């Protein structure tokens, strides 16, 4: 087994970036025999059959050569049509849409394309813990904004204050419905945030990967309000249970998309042919597929929220995605990592410590209800037993 030669170093920037707390915790508890994991945002549904068949046909038809760097035009047209219907913004498929390797690559390409050394990127938390390490790698400085006191929503007043304190702000990142809280932003709130972002001449990178999974509310994209400064990110991972296909997309004004396209090409060259074929099918003949998932997820959400509240674990009722963010009862303290590890070891239930999602997550835990009904019922029963035993 080789060892690195003496005197060879590596990037100081990369060394300082910490691995995902979500993955670290998941890897740790995955070693526990018999554990039920509600840790990862992984749909337990299967990809729709007609979408799978489209991928199979792509392979059988020897669709195995380099695709256009920005993605196949037919798929970019389908994405453009989909966004026109859903968020009412017309993106030119030739110049304003890029197909990426999941939303993760889209986030990387966007931040690398807009950032100069010293630029500040404002990130409301608690939120998915990818954004600030990527900002670091892109030579930007991140500003984590704790939204816990405002119901886990970034208010325009709070944003104004943060911008005043951070005069080098270049962009705001929004993710909604939000991972880990499931909180959705109202149209009123989005319009107010858009005014602040326009006033201060900022970009908004809006990650709306969960926008098709909302419950009882209508999703309103900030790209509808300020398309001239919005970089819109989404994909088919959550909407069509296609996480393994790694198919995302990014849309925005042509001028910035030309730069994002460059970064995308340098990162990955292009996305996989069969995944693009599957996504094309999903976004043309599978627009109703998420309705079935929503029905199942909403039933699970209602069960998990009620069960946790009955146990004394206060939750913010999620209006989207497939997570519940629950507050640890005060008598158990605020050490969410200790709480989650103890629960995993004693009752064999894996839930993610809230501190993995940044400021405002401390003292909370995230449960993913993208798991079977059987697993959810068993896990919630075990959590109830744990709380009762621990409380005695």
TrEMBL record:
Positions of the Aminotransferase class I/classII large domain = 35-383
Q: What is its EC number?
A: 2.6.1.-
Per its record, what are the GO molecular function terms? pyridoxal phosphate binding; transaminase activity
Named cofactor requirement(s): pyridoxal 5'-phosphate
Q: Which InterPro entries match?
A: Aminotransferase_I/II_large, AspAT/PAT-like, NHTrfase_class1_PyrdxlP-BS, PyrdxlP-dep_Trfase, PyrdxlP-dep_Trfase_major, PyrdxlP-dep_Trfase_small
Pfam families per UniProt: Aminotran_1_2
Extent of the signal sequence? none
Task: Name its GO BP terms in alphabetical order.
Answer: amino acid metabolic process
* Coiled-coil stretches noted in the UniProt entry, renumbered to this chain: none
Mind telling me which SUPFAM superfamilies this protein's record contains? PLP-dependent transferases
Keyword tags? Aminotransferase, Pyridoxal phosphate, Transferase
Q: Which PANTHER family match?
A: AMINOTRANSFERASE, ASPARTATE AMINOTRANSFERASE
The family note in this entry says:
Belongs to the class-I pyridoxal-phosphate-dependent aminotransferase family.
Q: What is this protein called?
A: Aminotransferase
Provenance organism: Lactobacillus amylolyticus DSM 11664
